[in-house]
């Protein structure tokens, strides 16, 4: 007699399948209904049906196909109840029949992957703000609940729910097209997608506010999204560069905090704790990006940043880091994707490669208000001044950075650095 799964294990299975397949499910339903709100509702109905049915009947051999069939049948029922949409009923009945006869989803993989790409691009429609794009991407593509997204961005559940709801209404008002854009529009939209995934990762890697130095769950969700984008747009070197960058940076998570949960800077990290699997995956993704670039496909900011992260990943110790190479890569990045954040990081690289005076020269060229009230500029200035032996001035810079940050762990770190400078001064 086959073992009957327990409710707990079945619920875990449903959750795992949902996280893995929700983008394909919502994407296919959006293509059929042309209504992202309805598509999400239908997908959620299928999820509820699985939670009700699978504990008793067992997990089906192809759970993804089960969810797709259930959702499409519910879509047929919905349109049957709407007399003005009989034409769509016939179309959906035909689609549902195809899925019912289909042993698995592999036969339609190209179509389904197009649906995922459509959904990813839809979530990053130019009518939406970056914050709304991030929330909608995590909701529809990542399969996260509103509560999970709100927790990741430190906002009330109701606020995040309203943000997601407004984003859907904005798409409806804008008449957002679910068809795949082409040419420059597709390139621009893919850039927006990558920017959103990178925003999500950065919020997980170094939280802008709150009590925690990092939010690994948010960062790892961004990695999953980056891998998904790389799967559906495999000929674009930048998507592989983004995946590489996130995986290489995330490999440091185990060493970024000490046993007491306090922040640990890169130079002080125990590199034996770095995640070797993520490093290997990141280097492999970078190799794919570089291979595409070798065929004449242009590369950009993510491939270059991944190449910089790879230099760190390959260094067995902090002292072995090839800072001159990193400085050269930042010089290229400054030409390819100029901006104040790049310049501040270029100042760090030049300070380590050519001495603190060289770094300060780069930093001094950054406009004072370029990053608003961010703690980045004064914290980097403090580090460079420390390396130059100007401890009193460095302490003041760290004080300024500490007063600007909204992250409790980062504030403690900056205050410790200021105190160390005063002891040396």
Automatic annotation (TrEMBL):
<dbReference type="GO" id="GO:0006352">
    <property type="term" value="P:DNA-templated transcription initiation"/>
</dbReference>
<dbReference type="InterPro" id="IPR014284">
    <property type="entry name" value="RNA_pol_sigma-70_dom"/>
</dbReference>
<dbReference type="Pfam" id="PF08281">
    <property type="entry name" value="Sigma70_r4_2"/>
</dbReference>
<dbReference type="InterPro" id="IPR013324">
    <property type="entry name" value="RNA_pol_sigma_r3/r4-like"/>
</dbReference>
<dbReference type="Pfam" id="PF20239">
    <property type="entry name" value="DUF6596"/>
</dbReference>
<keyword id="KW-0731">Sigma factor</keyword>
<dbReference type="GO" id="GO:0016987">
    <property type="term" value="F:sigma factor activity"/>
</dbReference>
<keyword id="KW-0805">Transcription regulation</keyword>
<dbReference type="Pfam" id="PF04542">
    <property type="entry name" value="Sigma70_r2"/>
</dbReference>
<protein>
    <submittedName>
        <fullName>Sigma-70 family RNA polymerase sigma factor</fullName>
    </submittedName>
</protein>
<dbReference type="InterPro" id="IPR013249">
    <property type="entry name" value="RNA_pol_sigma70_r4_t2"/>
</dbReference>
<keyword id="KW-0804">Transcription</keyword>
<dbReference type="InterPro" id="IPR013325">
    <property type="entry name" value="RNA_pol_sigma_r2"/>
</dbReference>
<dbReference type="InterPro" id="IPR046531">
    <property type="entry name" value="DUF6596"/>
</dbReference>
<dbReference type="InterPro" id="IPR036388">
    <property type="entry name" value="WH-like_DNA-bd_sf"/>
</dbReference>
<dbReference type="GO" id="GO:0003677">
    <property type="term" value="F:DNA binding"/>
</dbReference>
<dbReference type="InterPro" id="IPR007627">
    <property type="entry name" value="RNA_pol_sigma70_r2"/>
</dbReference>
<feature type="domain" description="DUF6596">
    <location>
        <begin position="189"/>
        <end position="289"/>
    </location>
</feature>
<feature type="domain" description="RNA polymerase sigma-70 region 2">
    <location>
        <begin position="21"/>
        <end position="83"/>
    </location>
</feature>
<feature type="domain" description="RNA polymerase sigma factor 70 region 4 type 2">
    <location>
        <begin position="120"/>
        <end position="171"/>
    </location>
</feature>
<comment type="similarity">
    <text>Belongs to the sigma-70 factor family. ECF subfamily.</text>
</comment>
